[in-house]
Amino acid sequence: MALFWGLLVLSWSCLQGPSVFSPVSAMEPLGWQLTSGPNQEKVPPLTLLKLGNQVQPGAQNHTLQRLQQVLHAGSGPCLPHLLSRLCQNMGPGAFRLAARMYLQKGFPIKEDFLEQSERLFGAKPVSLTGKQEDDLANINQWVKEATEGKIPEFLSELPEDTVLLLLNAIHFQGFWRSKFDPSLTQRDSFHLDEQFTVPVEMMQARTYPLRWFMLEQPEIQVAHFPFKNNMSFVVLVPTHFEWNVSQVLANLSWDTLYPPSVWERPTKVRLPKLYLKHQMDLMATLSRLGLQELFQAPDLRGISEQSLVVSGVQHQSTLELSEVGVEAAAATSIAMSRMSLSSFSVNRPFLFFIFEDTTGLPLFVGSVRNPNPSAPRELKEQQDSPGDKDLLHSLKAGPRGDKLFGPDLKLAPPLEEDYPELGSPK
What we know:
Layout: E1 2-6, H1 23-34, E2 40-43, H2 45-55, H3 61-71, H4 78-90, E3 95-103, H5 111-121, E4 124-127, H6 132-146, E5 162-175, E6 186-191, E7 196-215, E8 220-226, E9 231-238, H7 245-250, H8 254-257, E10 265-272, E11 274-281, H9 283-291, E12 309-321, E13 325-327, E14 342-345, E15 350-356, E16 361-368, E17 378-379, H10 391-396
Parallel strand pairs: 1-5, 1-12, 3-4, 10-14
Antiparallel strand pairs: 2-16, 3-5, 5-13, 6-7, 7-8, 7-10, 7-17, 8-9, 9-15, 11-12, 12-13, 15-16
Family: Belongs to the serpin family.
Protein name: Serpin family F member 2
InterPro entries: Serpin_CS, Serpin_dom, Serpin_fam, Serpin_sf, Serpin_sf_1, Serpin_sf_2
């Protein structure tokens, strides 16, 4: 019999837990391995972790061991409690979790699995009608409501012989602590590589309160754009065009991206508006992570005594970034060092994360190679100055040649002159 593992996501967020389960240790390898698409990919390690925890109460023996190894989880219902605390931390309306279970009429599911699913994840069982058109309409309507209308049609068909469907939806809406002025947004070029650009709508600000720094190994600029609700949109911009997501992430850790003593400073910012939509089947991805057993002969006798196999894992997400904030769907004091205006421009391929600030916990991982894939590529104008070749050196050296950033990370002292505007990378 077929178990359809429906994975739906609109966003991101979580909190550190006790020793029996560490979300950070679980999400780091998941996020690193999942974010490897050729153009732009948005993969939420938290949601994959949550769905895995929904299946875990029904897994036994070797299947249970594999789930625990891949998810870096022990026993115990820690994740649901962490998610509940997270929702409380972020306040009403910012972060919404929803889960549902659809069952074939007459399917002999175990009461203990039903009880745990509803108690831990709020996944109430609903019977399938047996008529695919009606069932799809009901499922898609639930998804639409759970994601505030951001995903109006999740499934177009159900696999044959589906007896159990697990759905998982998350919606996040974050408002910038400092909004961008829409009147300053204008058409600009996003550099795909050394030859081509695409037009984008570029948001701008002259004195944006931004935490940013530069890593030397690898050569990456990192910036934290703060939301109002204890979250940050973190952008990583490699200085070279030729970079591989997996290789970049292999040299990073969450701690590296979240240093404790980087202060906000007024920064000239350019950040492209984005609307990203992504849909994929995750069966191959989960197999690569080591969960291929779920699709072959898993031991899911904690769900039912009947033999079950996972027949599908669907993922869909959207992300919209605008002048007011991010939708995937109290102001704090700002400590600024006295220094001249610096510049941070996101005008070439980049990676991004959504972090929960109080713990540095990552919710969402993605990469953007082309923010406007429907636009024709344009040849880059030859307007770079000879000094651009020395851009990285100028970023690392102060007015007297002193090094501002060490082997991994050193924070910049106050400068006597502006940082150069970031031009074309090497």
